[in-house]
Design brief:
Layout: H1 2-6, H2 12-33, H3 39-60, E1 63-69, E2 75-77, E3 80-89, E4 95-102, E5 105-113, E6 119-122, E7 125-129, E8 132-138, E9 146-151, E10 155-157, E11 163-175, E12 178-188, E13 193-196, E14 199-203, E15 206-208, E16 212-214, E17 219-226, E18 232-239, H4 241-245, E19 249-257, H5 259-278
Antiparallel strand pairs: 1-19, 2-3, 3-4, 4-5, 5-6, 7-8, 8-19, 9-18, 10-11, 11-12, 12-13, 12-14, 14-15, 16-17, 17-18
Length: about 300
């Protein structure tokens, strides 16, 4: 009951079950002390009691909270110090990692990315300790972006004070009904000029594209659409990768107290079963074996 209360388990049925689990382990120890079971039986029974206790603590004692995490700013969550260290993007552009430190130990949540660069499948970061596990699941974030339409041959002033000029477009069949569309765009801030070629992989049902750096990484653009007559294209204007990596994120943080006991319980049950299986009664060495009827052989 004390162990259950320490991790936040307060409902009566769970406290009673936790007490029974501890009582079962204590009863096994007392039975072993009286030589009524062997070492193997002791380990197996204690392991079973610990497994029941682990299920109760991790289930009824689990807690979840949503936390806004700012890079490099420590926060106390369920008795742990959590620090968000930003994001890392894989070179192939197919996944990224949210990096955290929990009580000084690094851990990361890996997120698969869609073709557009948006979050898809996510795996939480897990910080393991003897007291239990802490799970950190980042909420998908979308960087603020603007959209603009460019007409071929015309210069347009963007929202970010850069001038954009759509020069032309090319198409390259990729097979399987896919076509790689490449736009030629010129950007300038009045002094420096950058010529870039964003692409989109078009299919019969849509297309996918990824942001590219422009103006030495000051921001990014992504080609998101082309008109049927090829006169207009649609661009998405995104902050730089460094800015996106430093953005605050919201994460769902949950705790599973006592879950480490389950692994220890499995080990004890396994070892106890093996030890019990090997314990056999052997005839005394150097003496005569006596048959069940009391006759000596």
């Amino acid at each position: 009951g004390v162990a259950a209360g320490a991790v936040g388990v307060t409902d009566i049925p769970s406290v009673l079950l936790a007490s029974f689990a501890l009582f079962a382990a204590a009863a096994a120890a007392e039975t072993y002390r009286r030589h009524q079971i062997g070492v193997g039986g002791l380990l197996a029974h204690v392991g079973t009691g610990m497994a029941l206790l682990a299920f109760i603590l991790s289930g009824s004692g689990s807690q979840t909270i949503s936390v806004d995490l700012t890079p490099d700013v420590p926060q106390e969550v369920y008795g742990h110090t959590v620090v968000y260290r930003g994001q890392d993007f894989a070179e192939n552009g197919k996944e990224k990692s949210y990096r955290y430190e929990v009580d000084g130990t690094p851990t990361e949540a890996v997120t698969k990315l869609r073709g557009s660069g948006e979050d898809a499948a996510r795996e939480p970061a897990i910080a393991r300790s003897l007291a239990g596990d802490l799970y950190i699941a980042p909420t998908p974030t979308t960087a603020e972006h603007d959209e603009m339409i460019l007409r071929r041959g015309r210069t347009v002033m963007g929202i970010n004070d850069y001038a954009y000029r759509y020069e032309g477009i090319s198409f390259e069949p990729q097979g399987g009904g896919k076509t790689l569309v490449t736009a030629q765009i010129e950007l300038t801030d009045g002094e420096a000029v950058d010529t870039v070629e964003p692409t989109i992989l078009a299919t019969d049902t849509g297309g996918t594209s990824r942001p590219i750096d422009v103006m030495d990484g000051k921001f990014r653009i992504r080609l998101t659409g082309v008109s049927a007559d090829e006169r207009d294209i649609r661009l998405e204007i995104l902050p730089s990768l460094a800015e996106e990596m430093a953005m605050p994120v919201t994460a769902s943080i949950s705790t599973k107290p006592g879950i480490s006991l389950l692994w220890l319980a499995c080990v004890l049950v396994t070892i106890g079963g093996l030890v019990a299986a090997r314990q056999t009664v052997s005839p005394a060495k150097g003496g005569d074996a006596e048959d069940p009827l009391g006759k000596k052989s």
